[in-house]
Automatic annotation (TrEMBL):
Transmembrane segments: 9-28, 48-68, 89-111, 148-170, 182-205, 238-263
Organism, as annotated: Apibacter mensalis
Protein name per the record: Glycerol uptake facilitator protein
Taxonomic lineage from the root: Bacteria, Pseudomonadati, Bacteroidota, Flavobacteriia, Flavobacteriales
Keyword field: Membrane, Transmembrane, Transmembrane helix, Transport
Family (UniProt): Belongs to the MIP/aquaporin (TC 1.A.8) family.
GO molecular function, one term: glycerol channel activity
Compartments where found: Membrane
Membrane-protein topology: Multi-pass membrane protein
PROSITE patterns per record: MIP
Chief localisation class: membrane
Gene Ontology cellular component terms for the protein in this record: plasma membrane
Keyword Membrane: yes
Length: 269
């Protein structure tokens, strides 16, 4: 990889790492037995915490000018919409999966004692790593649709924000077309819209599936759940993770990219 791609790879990896280290840490704090946060799982806590986790991850990755994807569904959708260069797709997705895996390893180490104390409840254990539908029986279409719609909003809003801020496509010194990105710091509100999106989508659709929206966010913590030597942890439920938590977000992202191209072609000339 050349220096530009390497820099963006590192930034995307760090952002994805922090997303899971913070996000799954919030879930574990609110859920696991003997945690100080156990029993304080108010309706807003999960969506608000994950929203801030996303915002902090955007800040962490901003010096690397990655655009803060942290999500293969976002990367693929931006590529399909013509605002992301094909040579960055695989490095970004690789960084996202590696970062999410490492983040899940770190947070499971920190909460290792609490995971062991909760190991008799397999549903609770899997739930702090990966997503699951609140109703499985006779609700498959609704569960799939919740992930498609949630990711559609996430991606379409992101694409619209880029277009509205002069970020449709630029050619930088590397010749790589991409959205324009600005540095994000604690004195800037630039990271907050991403957090607000996650919060709103979580409040709207989190009750159905736990709102994955992101194959890397679900599959890599699910893999860590698979390899953890915890008694009574139960099955890792890969069928759900692949279809509902991974395929559905990709479908939602591609639908958003298609609508963005349609709007751009016929209404934004």
């Amino acid at each position: 990889m050349d220096s530009v791609v390497t820099t963006k790879f590192i930034g995307e990896l760090l952002g994805s790492f922090s997303l899971i280290a913070l996000g799954c840490g919030i879930s574990m704090n609110l859920t696991l037995d003997k945690s100080y946060g156990e029993g304080n799982k108010a309706t807003l806590s999960g969506p608000l915490g994950w929203g801030f986790a996303v915002a902090m991850s955007v800040i962490i990755s901003s010096p690397f000018d990655t655009g803060g994807h942290f999500n293969p569904a976002v990367t693929l959708a931006q590529w399909a919409a013509g605002v992301f260069d094909s040579q960055l797709v695989l490095p970004y997705i690789a960084a996202q999966f590696i970062g999410c895996f490492l983040g899940a390893l770190v947070v499971s180490f920190v909460y290792g004692g609490h995971l062991s104390a909760t190991s008799a409840d397999s549903g609770k254990i899997l739930g702090v790593f990966a997503t699951n539908a609140s109703i499985r029986k006779n609700n498959s279409v609704q569960n799939f649709s919740a992930e498609v719609i949630g990711t559609f909003f996430l991606v379409f809003i992101g694409l619209s924000m880029g277009a509205n801020h002069g970020g449709v496509i630029i050619e930088n010194t590397t010749g790589i077309p991409q959205f324009t990105h600005s540095m994000v710091g604690f004195g800037s509100l630039g990271a907050l819209p991403a957090g607000f999106m996650i919060f709103a989508i979580g409040m709207a659709y989190g009750g159905v599936t736990g709102w994955s929206l992101n194959p890397a966010r679900d599959l890599m913590p699910r893999l860590v759940h698979q390899i953890l030597p915890l008694k009574g942890k139960g099955d890792s439920d890969w069928g759900y993770g692949i279809v509902y938590a991974s395929l559905a977000p990709i479908v939602g992202g591609m639908l958003a990219a298609g609508l963005y191209l349609l709007v751009k072609e016929y209404f934004l000339k």
